[in-house]
């Protein structure tokens, strides 16, 4: 699924060895996956011609490879997955989240308080799937976003058998 250049980058940055993956199951079916990685970030190598990570982001984790079963992103399920990953990062002393994503994921991450670091989208040479956005937020910004009435309406209780697991 990854290009040879992407595999080489992951190897050189030891992404797999440094990452924690969160899996979300619903009734024993895998519904979503999220990779969480501390600095150095994959996006810093991909977007180095546009910007470089600041000291402020060095205590963040990168949320990446958010993959869901459906295009609708199963809002409650994905919220659960992101909450589990956020809790994990807070317990380990990280200060926030950064993410390099395409437009559909950008809208999702913005609901959680992440904002664009750049004014325009970034074109990543190594990826042929469109333009990307670089987002970031610290925990207070994320907490404020999830406490908004529009966000809590998306999280109304439903009868789900959702389990977020990490490995």
UniProtKB/TrEMBL annotation:
InterPro entries found in the cross-reference section: Acyl_CoA_acyltransferase
Descriptive protein name: Uncharacterized protein
Source species: Pseudomonas shahriarae
Source organism phylogeny: Bacteria, Pseudomonadati, Pseudomonadota, Gammaproteobacteria, Pseudomonadales
